[in-house]
Structure formats: structure tokens, C-alpha cells
Amino acid sequence: MPIEMQRRKEQDRSIAGRFEMRRRLPDPGLDGIVSDICGYRETAAGHFRNVEYASLTVPLVVSFAEPFAIGLGKAPGDKDRFASFAAGLFAGPVMIESFGAACCVQINFTPLGARRFFRLPMSELTDSMVVLDDVLGTEGRALREQLGNAPDWASRFDLAEAFVTARLASAAETPLEIAWAYHRIIASGGRTRIASIAERVGWSRKHLAEKFNEATGLGPKTLSRIVRFNRALGLSRQPTADWADIAADCGYADQAHLVREFRDLAGETPTALVSR
Predict the structure, then answer these.
(1) Are strands 103-109 and 58-63 parallel, antiparallel or unpaired?
(2) How far is 194 from 108, CA to CA, in rounded Å?
(3) How high is the mean pLDDT in each 10-residue block of the chain (276 residues)?
(4) Which distant-in-sequence residues (6+ apart) come within 8 Å of 270 by Cβ?
(5) Which of 15, 20, 134, 242 has its CA 20 to 30 A from that of 209?
(6) How far, in whole angstroms, is CA 45 from its chain's centroid?
(7) Under 8 Å between Cβ of 69 and 96
């Protein structure tokens, strides 16, 4: 199977040359399930910190070396060390520290793809990291050993794709109502009223919220906030971006509302975030 590597300039090897990253888009058969698969290896000693903002990615990290330190909405402490794990959705910034010797494969699932792959309510992973053995048992341990023994990234990516495909073969399909609601929120940029979605699928708002939380790990309102935030962040990268216009375009009540949401979901003001 040919490798479709996205050698993102800043990720493949940083300016400082402190890590190597290889990335593959998934096989078309995993479209809508897996957004990408990447391999990460640190090549320089040191103590590094990275902040990831609220997103709709559910990662499965399989590590062969030193664990990461991860804090949800805060700097990680001594007890926040994780090697191989799955992480549910979190409506806030995630602070990740490494120490120069990390090496792992990371499979990034969509929320609905993660529900099918892990075969458990995604609400059980919300706001947490769960170690590999607890989410995949003996299958997870075998996968970690196979990936660790593989000779190169291409072989590891092949193994990871085959593992995901095999588990999906017997996975239950996503209920049509949930799939429609999820894709409606994405397509609208998080602006669709939840009441209108509930009415369209013929459920009460409470029933929709319960089923949606089980399927994705978040209620539709919170998931819409993350979609809206990421759209606003994308618009802010344009040369002529104006925060008042972005706030209106994305459905915020006003610019102050946008600023509060950026603080909650990214931990920073819009101006500070974009200036990075």
C-alpha cells in the first residue's frame, strides 16, 4: 500500500531538529473514522512543552519509549505521566510535556469513528486519558509489541491500519440520527440550533443530548462550541481578519463572547493565540 506522507514542514523536523514526525492519511476505507496516523520520535534531549487547543480528535497513542506528561487545562504534575493511552474529548487546552526521549505511533480518530473502534460509550473517555490496557486489553498489548518490533514507520502504519480495520469489521454502525446531527453541526460551523436538530430527528433535546454524549463524549452544544472556535481560529489566519467580523460570521453574540470562548477552549486571548 503506498504511503501518503504529509511531511508538514514544521512537524517532519523542527527548526531546532528536536523531533521527527511522519504522517499518513488513512486508507479510503477508513474515511470518516480515522483522520490521520502519525509517527513521532524525539531526537534531542530537553524538556519541551506543547499546548493543544480544544479539538474533535480522539487520539490513540501507542508508545515505545519515555511517557509524556499531560495536563488537562493545567500544567501536568508528577502523577500525570502517560505512555500508551486513549484520550477522550476535552473542551479546553491540553498541555503536553516531553523530555527528549519520546517515540510513539498516534492514530487520530473522529469522535464517531472512535465510538465504533473502542466499542464503548465515549462519555467514559471524556476529560481523561485511559491507559491502553484498559481500553483494548490483550489486543492493545499485542499491538504495542508489534509496533515496537516493526522495522520502520511504513510498517508501523500498515500494522496500525490493519488493526483498526479488523476491529471495525464487527463494530456496530452509528445510529442514523446521531450521524446526521453530528454532520449537521460540522457543516454549519457550529451555528445550527440544537432545538432544530432535535426536532429534525424526532427526539427531545434531552434524549438527543444523552445519545450524543454517549456517541461522542460531549453534548451537542459543547461540541458546537468547539466547532465554532476552530472555525474562528481558521478565519483569524486570513490577512484581512477582523475580530468583530469573525465573531459575527461565526455566530458569537459579540466580540467579548468570542474572547471568553477562546479563553475557555484555548487558555489564551484571540490576539495572543494568533500571534504565536
Answers:
(1) antiparallel
(2) 27
(3) 38 61 93 96 91 96 96 94 97 96 97 97 97 96 96 97 96 96 97 97 97 97 97 90 94 97 96 83
(4) 232, 236, 243, 258, 259, 262
(5) 134
(6) 27
(7) yes
